[in-house]
Design a protein that fits this description.
The structure is a homodimer of 231-residue chains.
Chain A: H1 22-36, H2 43-49, H3 54-57, H4 64-75, H5 90-106, H6 109-117, H7 123-138, H8 143-167, H9 176-184, H10 194-203, H11 205-224
Chain A binds a DNA duplex (19 and 19 nucleotides) through helix 2 and helix 3.
DNA sequence: ACCTGAACACCGTTCAAGT
DNA sequence: ACCTGAACACCGTTCAAGT
């Protein structure tokens, strides 16, 4: 077949290349995230996945930060908001929602990091805020105080998720960082080998207890601490 | 002068190239940080500053993360720990220390971010932990609870610094993110132009009040919330 | 032992040129 | 209007080869 003008062939021969849309880009990014992790959700890699050039994505997405924010909000749809309208003590239900939020983020701690830097703004996030506000209101927290509290609570959950994500690595007894961690745990360097075992506990049972404790500290503190007069 | 073997010339003609040392690298990194910001403290840029190749730095520094951790700890020497042993109410002195820590980090929010991801371990950080523990002990917080509390307090300060650093930018009424921020503040889109003014307040007076409130929430919550029985 | 150039395998973003 | 190749200006890290 000679070169030159060829008849516009039907799309069927390249079924993996649908027209670009903002939603399609976000979906591709999400599947790339699940397949290869956030660090590979780059403009170039994503474009490759979509069978185009990186430059094309800039028609739909302002920059990488916006792309990540879009993914995050999509993921936030997985947060379990059922406890908001369930039966039971409001404190416990609030902790359940915060746990769910943290759990969703912890699998993709890079996204949590971006949530810390660029406050989320999509529908997923707004639903979450709404739910937390409802629970605080049920708990009798005045609106002004609740507005600050919801920020404080979500901020704490977000930063915990950021922190946790990276901690999932082996402890190395020669590593200076790990030595300091051991010191903080009150372990003398002699008993060092034991941290390996301890660390697993820290990430599971004790880690969980600490986070729950943190949530309760925040909730009790909010109940106990009025906003300053002036504002 | 013909090429070939030249006599080893004295170092005096290149006074800016001292031998590489770990400390020298950290100092150069620190001055680069102050001059150009964290985003330019890269292995390549730093090597250039030290008149060598990036590969040479790997003799002294494991990787970029370690480099940043080293810088951070150096900076932590600037935290004002005087309130630890000053007169006055322990709560207020604790808040003062936390404020100082936050202030040091907020100027370099990228470093705060790295502190969130890689828990600091150097002497600067350990002194800070020591000071906070001393104040909590003075406040009658039991050691076990204090151990968790110091983490909670510093973690909150660190993540607040991470968050604040980026917020120092103009509000754009066309920006979706800013629209959501306005919504959260309870402003209808009609009153939108006013956020520009409001934003300044938020970053100064109200922002400061919120952070102080957050610290007090944490402190009151810690006093109010025992650690779970099991651990 | 320490240092290095060069290479490998990537990045984000812009822009002129095409359709 | 949408899409793109190519370019610009970078990255971190490794490694063989030098001194």
């Amino acid at each position: 077949m000679p070169p030159g003008k060829r008849p516009p062939i039907s799309r069927r021969d390249r079924p993996t290349k649908p027209a670009l849309t903002r939603q399609g880009i976000v979906e591709a990014a999400l599947s790339l995230l699940r397949a290869e992790g956030l660090e590979r959700v780059t403009m170039r890699r994503l474009a490759q996945e979509l069978d185009t050039g990186a430059a094309s994505l800039y028609v739909y997405v302002r920059n990488t930060a916006e792309l990540h924010a879009l993914i995050l909000d999509e993921l936030l749809g997985d947060v379990d908001l059922a406890p908001v309208s369930a039966a039971g003590e409001w404190r416990e239900r609030l902790v359940a929602v915060l746990w769910s939020y943290t759990a969703v983020l912890v699998d993709h701690s890079g996204l949590a990091q971006s949530a810390l830097v660029t406050r989320p703004s999509g529908p997923g996030y707004l639903h979450l805020v709404e739910g937390v506000l409802a629970l605080l209101s049920e708990g009798g927290v005045a609106p002004g105080r609740a507005a600050w509290a919801v920020d404080l609570l979500l901020h704490f959950a977000t930063s915990t998720a950021t922190e946790q994500g990276i901690r999932s690595r082996a402890i190395d007894a020669d590593d200076e960082e790990d030595r300091a961690a051991a010191a903080l745990l009150g372990l003398s360097p002699e008993t060092f080998p034991h941290i390996v075992a301890l660390n697993a506990v820290l990430l599971s049972v004790e880690g969980a207890e600490r986070l729950t404790w943190g949530f309760h500290v925040l909730i009790n503190g909010v109940l106990e601490t009025p906003r300053p007069e002036s504002s």
